[in-house]
Fold L-asparaginase 1.
Amino acid sequence: MQKISIILTGGTLAKTYEASTGNMVNADNDAARLFGDLCLDGMDVRFVDLLQKDSLDFTEEDFALILRTVAEAHRAGEKVLLICGTDRLPDLAQKLCEDGAGGRGVTVLTGAMVPLSVKGTDAPQNLTQALTVLRLSDAGVRTAFHNQVFEGGAVEKDRVALTMVVPAG
């Protein structure tokens, strides 16, 4: 049975509608709830609700906390699925590579362009794909998004096509 740590940092995927303000917010995130409809057979899953932030609001301290949490999971023999906002996901992928996460174990990042709570969301597809990539990988940092897999820090957000792409150049 594979040991997997699913770390939630917030992001669009986890946003919910706040009726009192009329805004989508990261509040009361619950990683286990996000995966409630998915079959997790063959996995020993530990859910970590680490942050409740839009990635645009990440500080250097937040990045450091995420890096420490991933390193701790790898030391415990866990593969890591990291759910992150798409705006800073490329920055986080790069920081994970610079921190040596790929040499310690497997880390797969994913997110969504549309919140899980909204009809037409891409979240279930991205979560399922990320879990598959995680289970089939032996080492490295990858991003799984919209039927694509990006190696290491070679990923950026295309704000026009609303997806992740390989950086130009």
Notes: The longest strand covers residues 43-53.
